[in-house]
Amino acid sequence: MGEAMRLSRNFTAVTIAQLVAQVLTFILSVTIARKLGASSYGLFVFGFAFPSLFLLLVSAGLDEVIAIDVAADRSRAQSYLTHVAAMRLPLLAAAFTAFWLSVTVVLTDPLARNLTLILGVSALFQTYGGTFLAFFRAFERLEYTAFVIIVERGFTIAGAFLLLLSGYGLLEIALVFLAGGVISLSLGMAILRWKFTWFSRGWDPRTAVGILRKTVPFALGAVLSTFVLSSGPVLLTVLRNTSDAGLFNSGLTLLLIVLTFLTLAHVVLLPTLARIRAVNPERLTSIVQDTQRFFFAIGLPTAVGAAVYAQPIVTLFFGPNFAAAGVPFRILMVAVAISSACIGNGAALGAVHHQTENLYVGTLGAVALLVLSLMIIPSYGPSGAAVAFVTGWAITGVLGTVVTRRYAVRVNLVSVLGRPLLAGAMMALLLSLVPLPLLVGVPLGALVYVTSLYAIGGVQRSDWRLLRDVVRGALGRAG
Questions:
Q1: Which of 26, 191, 392, 445 is the most exposed place for a label (fewest CB within 10 A)?
Q2: How many angstroms from the chain centroid is the CA of residue 467?
Q3: Helices (H), 201-309
Q4: Exposure pattern of 292-309 as b/e (b: 16+ CB <10 Å)?
């Protein structure tokens, strides 16, 4: 199977799984809010949000190390499974202890405490189960990851709905989520043993230490990502008010839906680039360049269209009371263009074992975001938070490209960015000069963009072959 087909198959699998999971979870959330009321819904959301603070301790960057090292040399699979699964047990115990103590201190209501504890334990099961799903990623067989996600979420949501219709409350629903966590863990282990690998009998302290050393930049990078995404709502609440935080968060929520697809692309790319670097390193540059050119050609018009129709899009989903969120959302969507232009940088640096440099870049971007937020949020509110977010994002993207060109691959930036930028300018000009409603302007703008891109040579003959392979991979056809 060609690389385009392989990447497309994996990307399609995890995208479908994430869409199914997100849609089902969204429907359940709305149902709980309508049936049990705002207070119960808020408690349900808190029960998921609070434990997430402790999951980073269990994750610790270990899944990324598995994806890179086992993809490059699959003979390591048994040893890495044994060492990572064993190392995560004390991390799991420490995370649960800290979580339990925190819940005991923070929550006094017995229902809230028990609900949060049950949902937290469910999340810990899911995180530990990530150990086994990481090997599906390393073997580039993400359809098995998708299968586990869909089975778990289907069982959980169906069970929760049955309990709601039968008159049960949040505590019983939480127990269904706990059962779902056990199912996810058990199913991942069973498939791994059946199709791929199983535990070895030996323990090598040097291997364990080597794995832990590699996890540090990935673990710190996860902390940075959490900070970047949560800083805006938190600082707006502290420096302004909860209303401004809500306006900003509505735009951020829509942004994250789009960025989810780029995150999934990173998930798929990391093991692929690690394998290619090990067996055919001269192809690394072409894979990264084709990926960036493909995603930027899609991400740029998405950002342009969302920026032009920012207010109608926000009010369509959140209602007219959120019309003021249009301006910060317009600013935030610049991050989509930046991310799509830089996609593959982090995966390439990880594949060539320069994740530490990627961490430095992310740190500089996060510091810039924080400093600028403190300076302008008090005066400019949600729009200031959006400017700070995009500035930090841009610094991370530009410096990440510089570092990637030095340590990993040197893509042709003119080839990646040039023609889509020209076609995007034509699209933006039309939509700015001719006021059109959302449902007319979006398809018309897309048509103008595609036509312009084709007219200036942005669609090449090789792209049709690439697209053919992508479609074949998405449909699961190898030949």
A1: 26
A2: 24
A3: 205-239, 242-279, 284-308
A4: bbbbbbebbbbbbbbbbb
**Which pairs with CB-CB distance under 8 Å and at least 24 residues apart come from 165-170?**
169/36, 169/40, 170/32, 170/36, 170/40, 170/43, 170/44, 170/47, 170/111, 170/115
Q: Is residue 401's pLDDT more than 80? A: yes
Query: Does 209 map to a domain?
Result: no
Top mean-pLDDT range of 50-54, 200-204, 233-237: 200-204
Same domain, 261 and 190: no
Helices 242-279/310-318 angle, 10° precision: 110
Q: How many Å apart are CA 46 and CA 43, to the nearest integer?
A: 5
Rg over CA atoms, the chain: 23
Q: Could you tell me if 156 and 249 lie in one domain?
A: no
233 and 364: one domain?
Answer: yes
Same domain for 183 and 223, yes or no, is: no
Instruction: Locate 471 and state its tokens.
Output: 């479609």
Q: Name the residue range of residue 5's domain.
A: 1-203
Contacts (Cβ under 8 Å, ≥6 apart) of 358: 217, 221, 345, 346, 349, 350, 400, 403
Read off the tokens for 277.
């670097």
Residues 56 and 113 in one domain: yes
Work out the pLDDT band at 464, boundaries 50, 70, 90. low
Q: How far is CA 204 from CA 42, 73, 80, in A?
A: 46, 18, 10
Q: Residue 395 above 60 pLDDT?
A: yes
Q: What is the pLDDT of residues 205-223, one digit of tens each?
A: 999 999 999 998 888 888 8
- Residue 225 falls in which region: left (phi positive, over 0), alpha (psi -120 to 50) or beta: alpha
3-class secondary-structure state, position 283:
helix
Which H/E stretch holds residue 191?
A: helix 170-195
> Does 34 have pLDDT greater than 80?
no
> What is residue 434's DSSP assignment?
S
Place of tokens 């192809």: 283
Residue 478, pLDDT score:
42
Residues 154 and 259 in one domain: no
pTM: 0.80
Distance CA 51, CA 42 (A): 15
- How many CA within 13 A on the CB side of residue 281? 8
Asked if residue 210 belongs to a domain, the reply is no
CA distance 434 to 361: 40
Orientation angle between helical segments 205-239 and 38-59, nearest 10 degrees: 150
How far is residue 115's CA from residue 118's CA, in Å, rounded to a whole number? 5
Token couple for 172: 């019983």
Distance CA 329, CA 305 (A): 12
